Amino acid sequence: MIRCCAAVLFAALALPCVAAGVPPQTVEVPSLDRRDGAALMLRGYWFPRPGERPAPAIVLLHGCGGPYERGGRLSRRMHDYAELLNREGWHALVVDSLTPRGEIELCTQRIGERAVTMTQRRRDAQGALRWLAAQPGVDATRLGLLGWSNGGSTVLATLQRGHPELAAAEVKPAFGIAFYPGCEDPLRRRWQPAAPLLMLLGSADDWTPAAPCEALAAQAGAAVQVESYAGAYHGFDGEAPLRLRRDVPNGVKPGQGVHVGGDPAARAASRERLQRFLREQAGAGR
Fold first, then answer.
1. Taking phi first (over 0 means left), then psi (-120 to 50 degrees means alpha), and beta for anything else, what does residue 72 get?
2. The model's pTM
3. CA–CA separation, 51 vs 179, rounded Å?
4. Cα 110 from Cα 222, distance rounded (Å)
5. Which of 55, 188, 243, 285 sits 20 to 30 Å CA-CA off 233?
6. Per its UniProt record, what InterPro entries does this chain match (predicted)?
7. CATH code for the domain in which residue 260 is found
8. pLDDT in tens, 155-202
């Protein structure tokens, strides 16, 4: 109850704030997840690309820490990637899966006990895709997903070939991009992609290790591309200094913490690889 009340207070005070840069439009996005018989409404941040012609669009899916930084502002990462996508010719939509459910973060919760499940996050992603497809100026044939960590795992879950909910979906993603997702569970389930996927990994990641994702890519075949950056840890595409998070109970060595932090070389290389993949996907849709 304390955690829930704190989350509600956080949401009330913090959600309208954004980091410096072009302010996005604050929108409500219906999830395919339901509460009391109605669609759960997600807070969204809409970064439309200026222009008259229909443009493709991408859903940005946050990690276990949520889409906000300290002080309650939409994170610099979300702003930076949305602006990069706009420059590349894409609309961008950030959705918050946590505060509508009374949560602030999942990182300190054990896997298997987390208050927001992968099923819920997948339904959020599906709802966001459906919202995008209905927007004026959006090319509904070219919709993608971009996620980090738990959000990257959501990308994989939303691309899972043969899943009944995904097969029945009105709107399906054309591709996905996942930064350092958790791949052990998909690997065990012999996951196969329903659309092209790019995974960007850190070889030294001791939170969501690279090896299961590399094995998943080998198992899945040509539809999955993978890049692994030598010596890079979880969160390598950020700018925060490397640190040990002892409050995270999961990871390669449960109970011993995990390393998180930026790597300038990996950040630059992954941005270039991301842009190249986006251009491939934009060309494939024409």
1. left
2. 0.92
3. 29
4. 33
5. 188
6. AB_hydrolase_fold, Dienelactn_hydro, FrsA_esterase
7. 3.40.50.1820
8. 999 999 999 999 999 999 999 999 999 999 999 999 999 999 999 999
Phi, psi of 36 (to 5 degrees): 55, 40
Q: Which of 45, 41, 30 is nearest to 91 (CA)?
A: 45
How many CB atoms are closer than 10 A to CB 51? 11
Show the tokens assigned to 34: 């339901």
> CA-CA distance, 283 to 286, in Å (whole number)?
6
CB-CB contact of 150 with 105 (8 Å) = no
Question: At CA 117, angle to CA 252 and CA 154, rounded to 5?
Answer: 70
Q: Which residues contact 1 (CB under 8 A, 6 or more apart)?
A: none
Q: Report the amino acid identity of residue 246.
A: R
205-232 tens-digit pLDDT: 999 999 999 999 999 999 999 999 999 9
Greatest extent of the chain over all pairs of C-alpha atoms, in Å: 52
HEC string for 99-164? HHHCCCCCCCCCCCCCCCCHHHHHHHHHHHHHHHHCCCCEEEEEEEEEEECHHHHHHHHHCECCCH
Supply the range of the domain harboring residue 184: 2-284
Q: For residues 46 and 35, give the distance between their C-alpha atoms in angstroms, rounded to a whole number.
A: 24
Strands 91-96 and 55-61: parallel
d(C-alpha 230, C-alpha 233), whole Å:
9
